[in-house]
Amino acid sequence: MLDLLAGFISELRAAGLPVSLTENLDATEAVRHIPLEDREAFKYALGATLVKSNAHWKAFETVFEVYFSLRGPQYDIQPEDGDGNGDGRRAPGDDRPPARGGAMDALSPEQMAELLYRALMDADDAVLSAVARQAVTRFSGMEPGRPVGGTYYLYRTLRKLDLDAVLARLMEGAQEASGGLTPLEERLAKDEYESRIDRLRKEVEAEIRRRLVADRGAQAVAKTLRKPLPEDVDFMHASRDEMMALRRAIHPLTRKLAVRLARKRRHGRKGPLDFRNTMRHSLSYGGVPAEPKFRYPRPAKPEIFVIADISGSVAAFARFTLQLTHAISSQFSRVRSFVFIDGIDEVTRFFEGAEDITEAVHRVNTEADVVWVDGHSDYGHAFETFWERWGREVSPKTSVILLGDARNNYHASQSWVLKEIRRRARHVYWLDPEPRSYWDTGDSILSEYAAHCDGTFECRNLRQLEHFVEELD
Amino acid sequence: MGPRFESVPAVREGLAGVSYLADEGIAGVVYLADRLGKPVLVEGPAGVGKTELAKSVAAMTGSRLIRLQCYEGLDESKALYEWNYKKQLLRIQAQRVVESDGAEPAAASSGSWSDLEEDIFSEDFLLTRPLLEAIRATDPVVLLVDEVDRVEVETEALLLEVLSDYQVSIPELGTVAATQHPLVFLTSNNTRELSEALKRRCLYLHIDYPELEREKAIVMTRVPEISDHLADQIVRIVRSLRSLELKKHPSVSETLDWARTLVLLGADSIGAEQARDTLHILLKYRTDIEKAAKELSVAEGA
Questions:
Q1: CA B16 – CA B4 distance, rounded (Å)
Q2: Residue contact A187–B270, C-beta within 8 A
Q3: CB within 8 Å of B74: residues ≥ 6 apart
Q4: SS3 for A375?
Q5: What does the alpha-carbon distance between residue A460 and residue A405 come to, in Å, rounded to a whole number?
Q6: In this complex, which of A33, A35, A255 lies closest to B32 when CB atoms are compared?
Q7: In sequence order, what are the beta bridge partners of A345?
Q8: Which chain B residues are within 8 Å of A253, Cβ to Cβ?
Q9: Which of A84, A252, B165, B284 is the most exposed place for a label (fewest CB within 10 A)?
Q10: Across the interface, which of B196, B205, B237 has its CB nearest the CB of A48?
């Protein structure tokens, strides 16, 4: 047991979770108090001691399933798969289908589909997981020892099940059964079926994982399933799901930013002695000024200018930065945003009042006047135009944040603009979504601009963005 | 003192007994908190019952609940203890009056000063604040440190010290150690990343919106007069709303408010219209309400 736990914890660490020695000891202590049969309690005991951030829970769950969930009696692995240490190499001819599923092997594809439909209709979990197992056996085309990731099998299985068509059929069935649903009921029914289908999908995924573990052993599977933690996902290469998660993560981040700036303002220093207030309070101490009172300083509110490149090369990042800008603007009294490709335009108005960020981004993309000649980034021209049109409004209260990869397509840099901006502004920061090692390669001229910035930050993931926020004042 | 709880299911039943329906995770962590003698850091969206959990555990174990509400600028004197200046000053003044009346020789006053000093730094003049209160308690207590993410890092360090050893040193009185380990719950809304050190000392519990069945059970327990059908509809609509991208998702407490409202209105099922008319109970932003109404009535047009 302790060995298993040790392997489990080292896998968590390998997946990027910061598990300290104390937490390790706590986990060991915790499992002593939990009966091993109680799988759920066991899972939460490990979770509570080892995972200290909700963002890491998913990664934990995956590793947990690989290491522990597969060992319950209900998941006993087929004899032909369970060959000991699970290195699972067998003779090429020996890929007969596993004997799992029993009676279901005889079913025709149509009967299978019908069974699946019934199971989803009646929310029959037992049948559902049996169907999932059977589907994996039939459709995934898993072969022992093949170095293919689980997602490939998952994709193959789900394609054959054609869940979209199943959903449509379920909805039809529901309509018929009740003799016409109200729109609200229809929506609720759809939600319900979708969640059941989602459960099926998870079953299939789990089944594939079980077989992979049986085939290759927990360690190897855990390794292939390893994904970056949410805070390490690269903005530029994030998948759609990851992007969604990132978007959700941004809101707390901007709140943090706002709280941080506000706190600094309020507690940075004490103001001068407030004599009247002190005297007033001294009355309750019999005239002894025991509790000196100070005035609160009233510093100027900082103003933020965000200038973001939204050209193709940084499109994914740009979308993200626009969302960030939007999120910031709802937290601060005064944020002005500008976007550019080779022309530049102020887009603050799109975010004002727009609650729906997707819509705002859409408007930015369609209405903003950002293309001047050919739609290839031209930082030089964009900066020049910025200076002409808005340069006067940059004041010592302004912090300027520039977002972009500084790939200028060999145009003139016009870095004098930044120099001027810096002379007037409070701070100038540059966030670059490219890895630091790519800076100044090819047409990237970051260092030319960096000379006029207070700081340049590599900003490819949430962790780095958070780091920037921490540095900011 | 022995462990408070028999087993994980016992915790769950106990909590259910005080109308708090815990899932496996919640019950498991509460159980462990007792067995390992560790504080629990509870995170999760607003209104899912983080604070309620501490209250319910207190009610279940028959303990006193001591609550420390955190805010920016909370310091030692508000969290731990403070000397009662005003009372001390009065005491000194009273002494003076005695002296001038009795016209004692000046030589005696030095002796009386040390008496006085000992006197004004005694228990009588100590104002205990929640943390000290929890540590000194001889009866079973549950300590709730609410919204711990609001305090500054320095105060967090203070908490850390208290929570790791369950003792406090007061220079004038000496060290006060706990006679019993209180069950401690810290809640956080995640406006600030808490320090690693604090997290390390705590068990971590993330409470999320409940599963459909559990939420329905919660509605049924908390709003007993509701019909099964209505409760079912309510939680389904709420789930549907949570899948939308809203500024603030409806929380469990809002679901309960909504359920109570509908019961008061005498509804036993919800139509689209009724849902839209009462949406403001579930959602707290105008734009969210509009969006939700649109989503629900988009279906209406179909």
A1: 16
A2: no
A3: B150, B151, B155
A4: coil
A5: 11
A6: A33
A7: A339
A8: none
A9: A84
A10: B205
Q: Which of A184, A246, A270 to mutate to test the interface with B (most CBs of B within 10 A)?
A: A184
Total residue count of chain B as it appears in this document: 302
Q: Which residue of B has its CA nearest to A22?
A: B200
SS3 at position A341:
coil
Residues in Cβ contact with B152 at an 8 Å cutoff, skipping those fewer than 6 apart: A263, A267, B72, B73
CA distance linking residue B113 with residue B222, whole number of Å: 60
DSSP string, A299-326: PPPPEEEEEEE-SGGGHHHHHHHHHHHH
* pLDDT per residue of chain A (473 residues) written in tens, 0 to 9: 778 888 888 888 888 888 888 899 999 888 888 887 778 888 888 999 999 888 888 888 888 888 886 554 444 444 333 333 333 333 334 344 444 445 566 677 777 777 778 777 777 777 777 887 787 777 777 776 666 666 777 777 777 777 788 888 888 887 777 776 777 777 788 888 888 888 888 888 888 877 777 777 777 777 777 777 777 777 767 777 777 777 767 666 666 666 665 555 555 556 778 888 888 888 887 788 877 888 776 655 667 888 888 877 676 777 777 777 776 666 666 788 888 888 888 887 777 765 566 666 677 777 777 676 667 788 888 888 899 988 888 888 888 888 888 888 888 888 888 888 888 888 888 888 888 888 888 888 888 888 888 888 888 887 887 777 777 65
Q: What is the distance in angstroms between the Cα of B231 and the nearest Cα belonging to chain A?
A: 14
Q: Predicted ipTM?
A: 0.81
What residues in A contact B299, CB-CB < 8 Å?
183-184, 186-187
Distance CA A134, CA A100 (A): 7
